[in-house]
Amino acid sequence: MLKYGPFMAALRKESPKHVYLLAGEEHHYIEKAKAAILERLFPAGEGMRDALEEAPGDLDGDALIALLETVPFFVPKHVVLVQESPMFREKKSGAADGEEAEEKAAKGKKKGGRDKKEERLLHLLADMPDYAHVIFVCSGKADKRRKAYKTVEAVGAVLDADAVRPWEIGDWLAGKLAEIHKVFDREAHEYFMGAVSMMHEVSLAHLDKEFEKLALYTEEKHIGKKELAEVFSGLPEVSSFAMIDAVSEKDLKKALTLLRRQTSNGVYAPVLLALMVRHVRQLWQAKLLMTQGVRGKALGPAMKLNPFIAEKIGRASTKFPEPLLKQAMLALIDADYLLKTGRGGAELLEHVVISLCG
Question: Which CATH number does 250-358 carry?
């Protein structure tokens, strides 16, 4: 089992495997890995149209065996792409012991049935014909306990395409910048990390497109904060980060301007309120951790943030007395109630921003 970076590195260096499993929640990684595998098998796409065949995941085991053993004509390879095979599906958590016992009993009664067919298929996967290749794709976590998983891991290659969390974006960023031959300066790096920290879920596909724009925006190798902000200005998280950053800096005029711009652009007050609650909580948490001796990048693991961002929040927290953060949190709780009951609007958030920056 390999993460995306090591998987792609191994794919470039090693001979193509006969069996691949691409599984996980990050669809972008799966699609990139699939494209890279096909590129290795069919350089410049030569012969792929005649050699590539797609199969549904619920295809009968013996039917898949027949498909894989079909000798190709006019092309040297036969590649089968199998979507969502139940052989790798993660078992439901909390399954009752009785259910597992029933499953075992059913297997015992079905000699020559589905599980026997799976056994025959796994035997083939362990010793594939020279011309045959198969790529299994699963849009969720694969169950590592399954015999099918262990077989592929032993004879082929497995991509563990976990969803990327905001604090894990560093490796992806380094790879992407190398790919487009760009380098961020310190301010640009800080700006990007801050914007990503605003995201509840990181969409690598969306970020990938933004970086393609960045590559076309300038021929300069070094990218500064100004260029990055101009290209990424369409991302809501960038505007949100800029507003939160202004609060951290106690820049009242800028914070209010950005808050009003957000609301005028159609961002709902409850969304902005949630971001402010999160930021005040992080400032407070960093302040408490620092009193316990946790400082700098060491704040990252404790706060479940990128260490770079956690360190920055730690520095900002020194500007806010604990009573002020408590007062702001209570005001935000009141604002949440008033917004939900229709008795207030964005002015409630402005009041909190003024109290924090005043």
Answer: 1.20.272.10
